[in-house]
Amino acid sequence: MAEIRYQDERVTIYQGDALAVLAELPSGSVDAVITDPPYNSGGMTRDDRTMSVHTKYVQSDQVARGTGGAALPEFSGDSRDQRGFGYWCALWLGECLRIARRGAVIALFTDWRQLPLTTDVLQAGGIVWRGIVPWHKPNGRRQQGRFAGNCEYVTWGTAGPRAQDLLGSVALPGFFEVNTPRVREHITQKPVEIMRDLAKIAPEDGVILDPFAGAGTTGVGAVLEGRRFIGVEQVAHYAEVAARRCRLAQLRGGDDKGEQAGFDFGEVAP
What is the pLDDT of residues 109-123, one digit of tens each? Predict the structure, then answer.
């Protein structure tokens, strides 16, 4: 059963299965969906699918916060094959389309392995596909004898037509170049800087939904940019982390500490 782990006038954090929670949210109630779902990187073979998330995503120079280098808790849902991943995405994206207001942006992260499938399922969910925003990670892993795979991608579309003047004169970048956080609370935690920029795709005071909230960085970015936030996270540990970091972001308000912001929002207790 889903439960509310934290709620105030600006932020709501649910703990539970995304499909169950999304089914209960009212239609036409959010201004953007921005999320980093478990995209089953390398799920093309059985061996890839059965790897632990630490083997897939953790590099040797990454440090678990406050634990002397101990492994971060695992997250769920990252063992589907590509066909299962595609069907599953079409289900929750269909719900997101219902929940989104007309013209709202629906954006999700993926890697190079799942990029072709992700662009397909975005459209299968009934969303108007608008493009791909690359995120280059200068500190990403390089491998001998091949091109570096140090990019992720934000695939995005809209819930029907979107007026070009919806954000006034605001024009957002179509490319990011930001290092991954060296210190983090979630294995695949995104930089606060990127999530702040992505949050600007919603109107001021608009509602941003993240069905796979993880450590809550989407919520941190939304709060710091004056947007409201609804997050859903299945793993109890990460639901608590997301609630804490969003509360801290509210206390900080619009205080911009650049790269240090990501560290502070994971490190300081409420």
Answer: 999 989 999 999 999
